[in-house]
Amino acid sequence: MSEALQYQKQKELFGHPVGLYILFFTEMWERFSYYGMRAILVLYLVAEATSDNPGLGWTNAEALSLYGTYTMLVYVASIPGGWIADKFMGQKQSVLVGGILLVAGHGVLSIEEMWAFYSGLGLIIAGVGMLKPNISTMVGGLYKTGDIRRDKGFTIFYIGINIGAFLSSLIVGYVGEVYGWHYGFGLAAIGMALGLLQYLVGQKHLKYVGNNTNKSIDPEEKAAMKRPLSKVEKDRMVVLFISFILVIVFWGAFEQAGGLMNIYASEKTDRMLMGWEVPASWFQSLNAMFIIILGTTVAAYWAKRKLKGKVSTSLFKMCLGLIIMGMGFFFMTAAAAQFNSDGASAMYWLVLAYLFHTVGELCLSPVALSYITKLAPLKYASLMMGVYFAMTGFGNKVAGLLGESASNLGEYTVFTGIAVFCVAFGLLVLLIRKKLEKLTHGAEDNERELHDNEPFELADPDINKPH
User: Where is this region: Disordered (predicted)?
Assistant: First the structure.
């Protein structure tokens, strides 16, 4: 089927393909399971083995070391997951296999045995590796080349991620801390099962996306898969790999949320609110809540800026996102200073930090996902998405190492160092941004041209009406 006919046959809802919402809810439940487990993982590891809600009794350093290694492997597994999809299964089937592995992994994790703990983590690593890069690639495949709705589509998809993360931090976090850690892990399994079920039901809306391109009957796709990379494609790959450095730095700082900031909230923050102690895991829901509230606003701001001809390239957004997120750590510096003087820090420092982290994330993360689908050659589409998530994984490991260093350096030094480095690095990349963008050979220029040629279809992106 020709590309034009393929996109013409897609049904739309609120101005986007219906398939976007199928992937939205699949990813929402997958993130419910992942972030629910993440919200209580470190707390479970450091909880005393003899307490009313017994954990494993590990030290903070040991828990953060495992957390960093686990979250790194979760995302590094996206490389083989993307490669398997490109070479053998296609993205659609890979997402299905990943969902099955995740249901099994979270289910096993709910068993109170050490063999189940490590086996469950292993199955989750494999499941995320198969699902995460491929479902994101499928989102990009719903839009034709140059469609200005693509970035907003990724932001809508990203909101789905964070609805799942928001609900899980509250529900799984509360159940885990109050009723038992393994009950929380079991709830994560139920959430993933719901996501898998609706993905299967919605297959009719994903008919033309995520198929195995090696078996494609489209002559253009066959040719693209066989020919060597062109000079333009090689230049674009160079830009992608450089942008991945931004990704590592960003997530190395951002992922303090599940590690050091999680323990800080539990041990050094005054969490009393009107006579009730707020569960430490609930603070991780702030990031998701802010994304749900601010997501479409930030996306609309960038879309309007682009249509006015102002600087709004992906690299510009990513650098700005890193700088804003880095500035959020200055609030954690203030929190550490207050703890050093008063013996406890106020909750509002964490709230402000998560607010800045969220705005930075909205500028960088959904944009980076969309950027990869614009620059990556067809034959390496899922693999490059896998590399992106692997870089996220390396950032997670960096986050664990930085968190461990707090036992020797102290939170004040670690938080301040992260803030200064992120702001400085973001400014440095901004200085060379234009040179890097030349190597993309106008990959993002098509969006402006399409808008000029199709003003009705691509009207104000705030107007969510079917075309």
Answer: 443-467
